[in-house]
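Reminder: ligand-aware prediction takes two inputs, not one.
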Amino acid sequence: MANLLLVEDDTTFSKLLSSFLGKHGHQVKVCSSLKGAREALTEEGPFDVLMLDYRLPDGNSVDFLKTLRSEGNRTAAFIMTSFHDVRTAVTAMQIGAFDYITKPVNPEELLMVLREALNKGEVTSVKAVSKAKPNVKADKQSLEYIEGKSKISKQLYEYVRLVAPTDMSVIIQGESGTGKEHVAKSIHRLSKRANGPFVAIDCGSLSKDLAASELFGHKKGAFTGALMDKIGQFEAADGGTLFLDEIGNLGYDVQIKLLRALQERIIVPIGATQQVKVDVRLIAATNEDLMANAATGDFREDLYHRLNEFKIEVPPLRKRGEDLGIFVQHFVDKANEELERNVRELSKEVMEIFMKYDWPGNLRELNNVIKRLVLLSKEEVATTSALPAEMITSMEDQQKPAGSDLKALQETHEKEMIEKVLQEVRYNKSKAAKLLNIDRKTLYYKIEKYHIE
Ligand SMILES: Nc1ncnc2c1ncn2[C@@H]1O[C@H](COP(=O)(O)OP(=O)(O)OP(=O)(O)O)[C@@H](O)[C@H]1O
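Here is what comes back for the chain with adenosine-5'-triphosphate:
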């Protein structure tokens, strides 16, 4: 039996859900607002899993969860969202931090996601620590992952093989769910450090107060709550690779410490007087534009350049062309095995929809949608009946006009405006920056970004 917190403002739905989960032996506390959830967490917690509706009267649950994580709350959680909000939920999703389920909620799917959340247990900032066994050539990872055959994928793995044997720091940039962690693991596996540890940290779920201690360790008594000495993840990764996911989330003071660790190869645990030598290769991932953040001062420029010895862009799924079919088959096989089903393939109509859809959540979203399809399909060929209904309607309406992509639209406007102002001031960049109300660094960055001559 699990102790669940359900935050849902649709009372009919929450009653149905809690009675359904009750019948499956779970205990459910229901709240209809984030304020209520906050109170329940303080007064009635801890819970095993948080189940959060996306839109609530007093805010959205992605922001709520982010706050909880930054406060150090690590309860497993998933978000229930309508298909139209998937994009937002997915974009904000951190690996392992939380999952999502689309409404209308299918009972079998709900139990599946809940089971997974319970198995995962508490979310930790340390995502994975693995020590590869020497002499095991075809390790499990190579069976679980595929590279794809498209030109863009071939290039991606060419870069991976090129940079892996060096000791260069690498920035892996790509949208959420594109496989950045997998790329980092591949670099580690193909490096001289393959027999050393691979430690993955999710900086997005590190609380601000504890980030430095998590990375560099602390001495007993260094701060309230430091009850004993703690080894930081830098030391844990000694001789291997440290993977910092969502590095853009690290606070400024931790960024300074990180830069020092990279430059001098030494760390000082909090409260310690002695320095500790470390031999760690750093790989950082981000789905933000770190260069832009460095230009605006949100990320330390010196650290950015120190990390950016090599940059790898992981392409979004919609740009991986023919790989889609390969990934589909791979995820179908995986879901069959996990769920003990026997779906052979997806119908032509499903594949057509998949090809038109733009997959904002990339491989992770594809994996989720296929799992649902396999779970709900009774036949060997999975049909559109197991797709979220709204996915089908949205595809029917979708003409993909250029003007529907808000970000692209904003960028086009921005580019036009910058060009216009630059012309007006005869390319005097200081004047242009002033008129545009941005600093010069940001202007330079944007000129480069938009290839303005
Ligand atoms: N090459 C691959 N072959 C098969 N599955 C993959 C591959 N790359 C990624 N995946 C799967 O896609 C999902 C997302 O991958 P991963 O966590 O590496 O992405 P990410 O870009 O690091 O995500 P985030 O931005 O949220 O941290 C995982 O379930 C992973 O197993």
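The pocket of adenosine-5'-triphosphate is lined by residues 93-95, 145-146, 174, 176-182, 245, 285, 287, 330, 363-364, 367 (CB under 6 Å). The chain has a mean pLDDT of 85. We will return to this case in the review session.
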